[in-house]
Write a structure and sequence with these properties.
This protein is an all-alpha fold and 197 residues long. The protein is built from six helices and no strands.
């Protein structure tokens, strides 16, 4: 049974499964293309796969976990489990485990957990911050900006009115200049009329 658990056996098992599947796929392709060897390839591939599946059903699945190295008997309901935390004697009893290495790894995990704890403390402090007044502040800022926009629009209108007023004053000055010239001409003409009379 130890050969079945070895890495070499697992490699050979995966190789045979892969090659059997490849032969089945190539046989199916050949069948679709009407190749003369298609029937033989499909038969060999499917018989190989059937044999592999029968064998895998007989030997049973490998466990995907390795907890039984840290806690022997974990898969047995009635087992008395002694964790590594029970002391150095428990670690020494486990085959293939070095208690010092496990202790170093657990220490590293403890350091990481402490870092995570401080980070969570920071998040909790952020959670306790009172953000209830921020809505009012945002409304106030919104009102300020809308009033600022209104004032800017009024200033823009005022500038336009000022420009119109300046243009009207310029036209009035020109009209007054023309009137002064006409009045001067009238005065000159009246002075000439008096001299002649």
């Amino acid at each position: 049974m130890s050969f079945i658990k070895s890495k070499g056996f697992k490699y050979i098992k995966n190789l045979v499964i892969g090659l059997g599947a490849a032969v089945v796929l190539v046989g199916a392709l050949a069948k679709l293309l009407s190749h003369p060897l298609a029937d033989l390839m499909l038969t060999v591939g499917l018989l190989t796969e059937a044999g592999i599946f029968a064998f895998l059903g007989i030997i049973g699945p490998d466990p995907d976990y390795y907890w039984n190295k840290l806690y022997p008997g974990l898969d047995n309901y009635n087992a008395k489990i002694q964790p590594l935390a029970a002391g150095p004697a428990a670690a020494e009893d486990l085959p293939g485990l070095n208690g010092q290495v496990v202790e170093q790894q657990l220490g590293g995990m403890l350091t990481e957990l402490q870092g995570m704890s401080s980070s969570l403390g920071s998040l909790k402090a952020l959670q306790e911050v009172d953000f209830s007044s921020t809505g009012d502040q945002i409304k106030t800022m919104g009102n300020f900006y809308s009033r600022m926009n209104e004032a800017m629009a009024n200033i823009s209108d005022s500038l336009e009115d000022t420009k119109n007023y300046k243009d009207q004053l310029t036209a009035l000055n020109q009209n007054l200049g023309s009137l002064n010239s006409v009045y001067g001409n009238i005065l000159s003409a009246m002075g000439n009329i008096r001299r002649e009379a």
